[in-house]
Fold:
Amino acid sequence: MKIIDICPECACPGVEININALENIIKKEKKENISLESHYFICTSPLCNISYFSNENTFTNNDLIHPIWYKDDGMNVPICYCTNLTRGEIIEAVKNGCKTIDDVQKFSKKKIITGKCESKNPIGKCCRNVFLYTMKKK
Ligand SMILES: [Zn+2]
Structure:
């Protein structure tokens, strides 16, 4: 079971994440601040500027290569981090008649990469439900 901790900035719950996911999303120059012995948590608040934290240190949203989808509502934010499909691209595809995830992926003409969610997604989980949510939202 995932361990939950409290964000030192906003006191919202943080969910423990795989260190691989953290290493893949932190900017190169900040990577030396990752302590491999620590447990890291992702802050679940959409409003908080802390992205990840441990007992020892914190990372902000600016320390990341890609924004976390629920902390940034911009159109250039990835929804599927494996394929690097953005919110804007998904919405555009739906406007053009795409009805399924498959349709959207074909429409985007991006190289389809799957099964990397554990290390690519900011929370280490499959993007499927967020993808479907984004399609419905328009
Ligand atoms: Zn927070």
In short: Residues 7, 9-10, 12, 43, 45, 48, 50 surround zinc ion (CB under 6 Å). The beta strands are 4-6, 13-17, 40-43, 50-53, 58-60, 78-80, 85-86. The longest helix spans residues 128-137.
